[in-house]
């Protein structure tokens, strides 16, 4: 019976020791910014932003032309014409406000769409490195506050190597 209890306690102790977690950290923003694909994403985002800006400029120009025309010819218009033009101007004004509100949302959606493949590639590399090195958990440095972090558990360099990206040299 004593040997049975000893065996169970040894088994319990070894399972506790073996189930220890190995925690690592990564600076994913640093890696994303070093990826060559990030430059393409920035370029495509700027181009999309310029398209949005040009559409917005067309709407503003159209609005301004209507307002100028109304002010210039207001005395010549009858009440029905004035009412119709004021409604058109107000509708254009509302469209411009909606376009401004939606522009930021559209830009954010486009940027997320463009960044998705980069994050997928990064996550695959993180998974590979974590499995190769026996990590059970990887924390992202951004958003997590650490009072202390041992650099030997930071896998940022390992993931950069897995992706074939050379980190810039730090000048002191």
Protein model, in words:
- The chain is elongated, with a radius of gyration of 30 Å.
- Helix 4 packs across helix 5 (156-163).
- The mean pLDDT is 83.
- The chain has one domain.
- Strands 1-2 form a two-stranded parallel ribbon.
- By secondary structure, it is mostly helical.
- The protein has helices spanning 2-18, 28-34, 36-73, 79-133, 156-163, and strands at 23-26, 137-140.
- The longest helix is centred in the middle third of the chain and has 55 residues, at 79-133.
- The protein is built from five helices and two strands.
Using brief descriptors, characterize the structure shown.
172 residues; mainly alpha; two-stranded parallel ribbon
| Helix/strand structural class | mainly alpha
User: SSE string, helix = H, strand = E?
Assistant: HEHHHEH
Query: Which outline best applies?
Result: elongated
Count of β-strands: 2
How much helix is in the residues?
Answer: over 70%
Give a brief rundown of this model.
With 172 residues, the chain is mainly alpha-helical. It is built from five helices and two strands. 73% of the residues lie in helices and 5% in strands.
């Amino acid at each position: 019976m004593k040997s049975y209890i000893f065996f169970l306690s040894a088994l319990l102790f070894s399972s506790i020791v073996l189930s220890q977690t190995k925690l690592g950290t990564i600076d994913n923003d640093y890696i994303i910014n070093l990826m060559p694909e990030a430059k393409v994403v920035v370029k495509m985002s700027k181009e999309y932003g310029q398209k949005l800006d040009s559409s917005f400029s067309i709407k503003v120009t159209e609005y301004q032309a209507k307002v100028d025309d109304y002010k210039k010819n207001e005395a010549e218009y009858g009440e029905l014409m004035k009412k119709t033009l004021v409604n058109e101007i107000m509708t254009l004004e509302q469209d411009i406000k909606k376009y401004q509100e939606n522009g930021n949302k559209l830009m954010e959606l486009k940027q997320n769409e463009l960044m998705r493949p980069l994050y997928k590639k990064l996550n695959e590399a993180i998974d590979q490195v974590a499995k190769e090195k026996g990590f059970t958990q990887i924390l992202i440095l951004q958003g997590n506050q650490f009072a202390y972090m041992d650099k030997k558990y930071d896998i940022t360099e390992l993931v950069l190597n897995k992706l074939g990206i050379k980190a810039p040299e730090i000048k002191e």
